[in-house]
Structure formats: structure tokens, C-alpha cells
């Protein structure tokens, strides 16, 4: 195989690295920061109609004020199940029910809890970095497989391209982490 024929799919590597970044952002959204947000309920699943269902598919989620989330449950028979799912979710929120409306007052975070959440955010970021490095490793392996028919300059070109993409993605992870930790520590 000649060097002209080897073409590393950088778009595929980039798409896979962006997938790790996207997963990180989803995990960050579920971390509570002391401010109410509808996204904090995304990981919560409710047993509805015989299967586990995302909470936003059984009711309307609103944020009427900075420290309050409300869920208007569409089916009255699911109110208790939604309430139970929230209590078991590990969010540390005690739901208050008024008919089909469940109110979730968001307590202020204490300093210790903020530090814990900041560490969890760091762990999520490290998982994303590892995923990105695994994609980088895969790209470098592809280059090594084809190095026999490739000039050293071409090899260097592809390795540099993969490394540059990796550096960009790791930087994006670090920036997302920095932003999330600042948000968590903000009183």
C-alpha cells in the first residue's frame, strides 16, 4: 500500500472524541449545583406502564424560580411512582406533592457537599479524557499498521494530526470541568 492510498479518517476520530465530550456534558448536567434546572432530572427513570421511562416523558418539568423545580405529572396514577423515583435517585431532594404537581425545593449546598460534587465532576472529566485517549490510541494504531508503505514524513503528518485533535478535545474537557467546578463552588 503506498502512502497516497492511506487516508486516516480524522472525521471519525473527531466524532468519537466529541461523543466522549457530549457524554461528559450530560453527566455534568445531572450534577446538582444548588440552582434548579430541569436537566438535573434527566437521569431519573420512573416505572410507568410496565417499563422504565425518563421522567420528562410522564410530566412537564418547569423551573418557576431559582431554587424550585416542578413536575406536572400527566397521569394521576403515576404521581406516587414519580415521587418514589426522585427520592431513590440520590439527588438528595425531598419532593412535596400537591395533586398532580410535584414540587422539588432545591436546598443550598453546604461547603462539604460542594467539594464532593467538585470531585465527582473531576472523575467524570477523567473518564472522558481516558475515552479520548483510547480513540487517539486507535488512530495511532491505524498509522502503525500502514507505516510500511508510508514515508516518515507522512507518518509524522498523521501522528501530528491525531495528537493535535486529541489535544483540542482534552482542552475542551478541561475547560468544561473548570466551568462546572466554578458553577458548583459558586455560593
From TrEMBL:
<keyword id="KW-0963">Cytoplasm</keyword>
<comment type="function">
    <text>Responsible for the release of ribosomes from messenger RNA at the termination of protein biosynthesis. May increase the efficiency of translation by recycling ribosomes from one round of translation to another.</text>
</comment>
<feature type="domain" description="Ribosome recycling factor">
    <location>
        <begin position="24"/>
        <end position="185"/>
    </location>
</feature>
<keyword id="KW-0648">Protein biosynthesis</keyword>
<dbReference type="InterPro" id="IPR023584">
    <property type="entry name" value="Ribosome_recyc_fac_dom"/>
</dbReference>
<comment type="similarity">
    <text>Belongs to the RRF family.</text>
</comment>
<dbReference type="InterPro" id="IPR002661">
    <property type="entry name" value="Ribosome_recyc_fac"/>
</dbReference>
<dbReference type="GO" id="GO:0002184">
    <property type="term" value="P:cytoplasmic translational termination"/>
</dbReference>
<dbReference type="GO" id="GO:0005829">
    <property type="term" value="C:cytosol"/>
</dbReference>
<dbReference type="Pfam" id="PF01765">
    <property type="entry name" value="RRF"/>
</dbReference>
<dbReference type="GO" id="GO:0043023">
    <property type="term" value="F:ribosomal large subunit binding"/>
</dbReference>
<protein>
    <recommendedName>
        <fullName>Ribosome-recycling factor</fullName>
    </recommendedName>
</protein>
<dbReference type="InterPro" id="IPR036191">
    <property type="entry name" value="RRF_sf"/>
</dbReference>
Amino acid at each position: 500500500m503506498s502512502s497516497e492510498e492511506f487516508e486516516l479518517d480524522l472525521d471519525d476520530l473527531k466524532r468519537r472524541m466529541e461523543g466522549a465530550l457530549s457524554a461528559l456534558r450530560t453527566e455534568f448536567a445531572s450534577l446538582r449545583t444548588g440552582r434548579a434546572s430541569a436537566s438535573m432530572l434527566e437521569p431519573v427513570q420512573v416505572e410507568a406502564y410496565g417499563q422504565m421511562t425518563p421522567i420528562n416523558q410522564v410530566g412537564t418539568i418547569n423551573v418557576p424560580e431559582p431554587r424550585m423545580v416542578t413536575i406536572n405529572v400527566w397521569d394521576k396514577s403515576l404521581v406516587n411512582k414519580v415521587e418514589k423515583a426522585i427520592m431513590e435517585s440520590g439527588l438528595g431532594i425531598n419532593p412535596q406533592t400537591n395533586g398532580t404537581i410535584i414540587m422539588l425545593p432545591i436546598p443550598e449546598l453546604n461547603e462539604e457537599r460542594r467539594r464532593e460534587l467538585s470531585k465527582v465532576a473531576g472523575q467524570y472529566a477523567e473518564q472522558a479524557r481516558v475515552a479520548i485517549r483510547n480513540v487517539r490510541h486507535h488512530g495511532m494504531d491505524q498509522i502503525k499498521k500502514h507505516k510500511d508503505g508510508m514515508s516518515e514524513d507522512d507518518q509524522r503528518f498523521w501522528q501530528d494530526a491525531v495528537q493535535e485533535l486529541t489535544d483540542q478535545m482534552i482542552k475542551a474537557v478541561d475547560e468544561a470541568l473548570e466551568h462546572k467546578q466554578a458553577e458548583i463552588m459558586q455560593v
